[in-house]
Amino acid sequence: MAPAGFVWEWGLRASDLALVCSFAPEKGQLGRPDSTKSRLLGLCVLTDRIIRLAARKTPTMADIFREVDEEVRRDQALLFWKKYQNLFLALAVLIVAAAGAWRFYTDRQRAEAEAAGARFEAALALSRENKPADADSAFQDLIKQGPKGYALLSRLRGAAEVAATDVPKAVSIYDVIAADSTVPALLQDVARLRAAMLRLDDADAAEIKQRLEPLTKAGAPFRNSARELLGYAALKAKDYDAAARWLDEIVVDVQAPAAMRQRAETLLGLVAGAKSR
Questions:
Q1: Do 223 and 215 form a contact (C-beta atoms < 8 A)?
Q2: Rounded to whole angstroms, what are the CA distances from 161 to 13, 77, 267?
Q3: pLDDT at 145 over 90
Q4: How much is the average pLDDT of 47-60?
Q5: Which of 14, 197, 208, 247 has its Cβ near the most Cβ atoms within 10 Å?
Q6: Consecutive H or E run containing 187
Q7: End-to-end CA distance of the chain, in Å?
Q8: What was the pLDDT predicted at 53?
Q9: 204-215 mean pLDDT
Q10: Does position 275 have pLDDT exceeding 90, yes or no?
């Protein structure tokens, strides 16, 4: 009987045959060619071929186009890499080198700043120890060799050291700093204020006004310090109206320090007493 008849005869389905074939005898165990064992083995071989053929998926046109498209993209990517690989490698090396150079630069800048800070502290210590000559020498070294920030601070601090022995020279140093456009505006104002303080005893009211009046504008960081010095200069010149005006501006300024407002009120009392004489 043919295998198909065998399937019909025994009432088996293809799914059942897969299970049956797992227990099929080996060729060496077969009896007569027309025996049931031989017929079962033949049917299992045929079923295995049918299952294998059914498992094969016939490719559609979409599958073919997709495979071709993937192959084309793969070839294009490979061609692009072969064409520009040297450029990409050079760019990667350049990025790594630039990052290393920047790291080296920042580390060196930090090390120089730390060393300059230590030297600046050492110069301040000499000043506190009442060694103005040694302190000035240390500050001068920083002005010549230190980083820009510490060099500028050393110029200001060095002028203060010079003021202990040579006021005109210190005033000249402050005036140079105040006129230097490369110096930040805040430190320029500091230099103007320090120079005016050194000149307060010797200069007339007009010079002090010329030096300090630009610092008294609303919002200026040292406006009240400048107003106080202008008030002293006006009192010295016996210009009581001008003194009262500068001192009043301190009293009404809510941002003025409390101690400064108190001093201004005290001086206003003196001004009022002097005007009543």
A1: yes
A2: 111, 71, 30
A3: no
A4: 58
A5: 247
A6: helix 185-199
A7: 149
A8: 52
A9: 94
A10: no
